[in-house]
Amino acid sequence: MSKINVSAASVWFLCIFYSMGCLLQAAQVIADTDPVEVSAIRSLSERWNIRSSATWNLTDPCSGQASSTAEIGNPGIKCACSGTVCHVTQMKVYALDKTGELPEELANLTYLFDLNLNQNYFNGRIPAFLGNLTKMKYLAFGINNFSGPVPKELGNLQNLIVLSFSSNNLNGTLPLELGNLTQLEQLYIDSSGVSGEIPSTFGNLRKLKKVWASDNLFTGAIPDFIGNWVDLIELRLQGTALKGPIPSSFSKLTSLTTLRISDLTSGITSLTFLQGLKKLTELVLRNNEISGEIPSYVAELSELQYLDLSFNNFTGEFPASLQNLRSLIFLFLGNNNLFGKLPSQMSSSLMYIDVSYNQFSGNLPTWSNNPALKSNLVGNHFEISETNNGLALSRLACLQRTFPCNRGAPRYSHFAINCGGLQMTSQQGIDYESDNETLYPASFYVSDTQRWGVSNTGNFMDNSAESFTESSQSQFTNTLDGELYQTARLSPSSLRYYGLGLENGPYTVKLQFAEINILDKGSWKSLGKRIFDVFIQGNKVLTNFNIQKEAGGSFISVDRSFSANVTENFLEIHFFWAGKGTCCITKQGTYGPLISAITVTPDFTPTVSDRPPSNSSSKKITHGLVIGIIFGGMAVVMVCLVITILWLRRFRKSLEARGQVHEGNGQSHSEVKFQE
Question: Which residues have C-beta within 8 Å of that of residue 566, sequence separation ≥ 6?
Fold first, then answer.
C-alpha cells in the first residue's frame, strides 16, 4: 500500500515538474517583430519624425498596444503574431501633416492590409511598389500632394476593399488595371486630378457600394456599365466634363440612397431610370440641361429628403404631386421655366424651398409667411403688396423679374457692401453697408433703403453646422482695409447681389476676395481648392476662379474690377458653383463661392440724389412707431399745457396780491391776451 502511495506521489511530482518546464520554455519563446519590419518602422519614424510611444513602439513595434485588442492609435501600428514572429498588419498616420515622398521601406511591410495616410502633405509620385503589398484591403492616401499618374500596379491589389486617392494633384487617365479590383466596395477619387474616359474595365467592379468621382476632367458619355454596380449605395459625379444622357441602365441601381450628378453637357432627355430607385434619400440632378416637365414618378420616391433639380430647362406647372413627399426637407427647383401658381399647401416636413427664377405668377401662397419654411421666391411674377403680404415679403417685390423698385425713377448711382460683415468706412472714405443678415439654404434680403438686395440658394449637404458667412481675425498685409476682408459671404450653389434703383449708364463693379477658410501652404488644410464662376448682368466674367491661386495664398486680398452697363435701373452680380473644387478641406462642406466685399461706382456724372425715398423703411418707421410718436407728442403737448395753466394761476395770484386785477370783468391783461 505504501509503495503504491510512493509511486503515486512520484508521478504527481513528475507532472508538476514537467508542467513548470513547459511554462518556462513557453515564457522563453516570446514572439518578436520581424527584424526587417522593425528596421522599416524605425526608418519611417525617422523620416516622418514620429517618436516612440505606446501606440508606435520603436523598440519592438509589435509589443504592448500593437498586439492588443485596443483600437489603433494615431500614429499607430497593429500587429498579428504567429508562433515566434509578429508582423505589422495595420498602420495609421492620419492628419499629422507629414511631408516628403513615401519611402521604399514601406515595401518591406508585406503583411499590411490596412494603410491610412489620409490628410498629410506627402508629395512626389505614388510609388509603384505599393502594388506588391498584395494583402492590402484598405489603402487610403487621399488629401495629400501627390503628383504624376496613378500607378497601374495598384491593380495587383486584388483583395482591396477600399481605395482612396482623392484630393491630390495627379494627372493622366485611370489605369485599365484598376478594373482587376473585383472586391472593391468603396472608391474615392474626387478632385484627384485624373482625366479622360472612365475605363471600360471598371464595369468589372460589381461590388462597389460607394463612388466619389466629382471634380475630375472625365470625358465622353456617362458609362453604361455603371448599371452593373448593382450594390451601389452612393454615387457622386459633379463638376466633370462628362456628357449626358444618364443611361437607362441606372434603373438597376435599386440600392441607391444618394445620387449626385450635375454639370453635364449635351443634356438629359429622360429620367425614366428613376422609377425603380425607391430607396433614394438624396437626389441632385442640378445644372444638367434637362428639359421637359418634371415627371410625376419623382413624387413616388417616398424616401426623398433632398431634391435638387435647379438650373435646368424644366417646363410646366409646379408638380402638385411633390406635396406627397412626406419626408422631404429640401426642395430646389430654381432657374427653370416653370409657370403658373404655386400650390396652396406644401408637405409639413419641408423646411426649405427654392423656386427662384421661374415664371410663377399670382398671389403668394399662405405658406410663404410661415417662419418655419424658408423660401427663395425671387425672379418670378408674383403679385406682392405690404397690405397682403406684410413688410418683409413686400420687399420681395423689388426682386421680381422686372425689378420694379424705383424703376423708371432711379435714386441711386452707387453702393458698397461689406459681405458677411458690419458697416464700415474704408481708408478711401467708401461707406460699406453691413451685410450680416442671416441667410438660409433658400432665402433673400433687401436692404432697408432698397438700394441693394441678396439671394441665396443651396445647402452644404455634408455639413450639418452650415453657415453662410465666414470670419477670421487674421491680418492682411497687402491692404489698408484688412477688416473688410475678415468677413465673407458664402454659398454652396448660387449667390446673387442686386443693385436696385440705379441710374442707367456705365458702371465699374469691383469684387473683393480673400480666402479665409482654406489655410496657407505646408499643411493638408492648404490643399483645398475653392472654384466658382462669376456673372455680371448675365455675362460670365470669371471662369473657374480660385481665390487662393489668384492671390498667391490665403489671407491675401485680391480684387477684380469689371465694366457693366445698367439699362433698366438694376444690376445683378451672380456667384455660381459648377461642381468644381474640393469638397471637404478644411472641413466637410468647404466649397462654393466666397465674396468679401462689393463696390459699384458710376463711370458718368450722376444726376440722382442718392437718397432713399422719404417713406423708406430705412428710417425704421413702422406702424407701431408712428402710433408711439403720435401718443408721445400728445403727451408732451398735455404736459406743456398743464405747466402753462399752473404758471398762469400762479401769475394771477401774484397780481391779486399786488392789487393789479381790474374789477370790471374780473380778467387780467394776461388772461385777455391769452384768450385772443
Answer: 499, 502, 503, 504, 505, 506, 507, 537
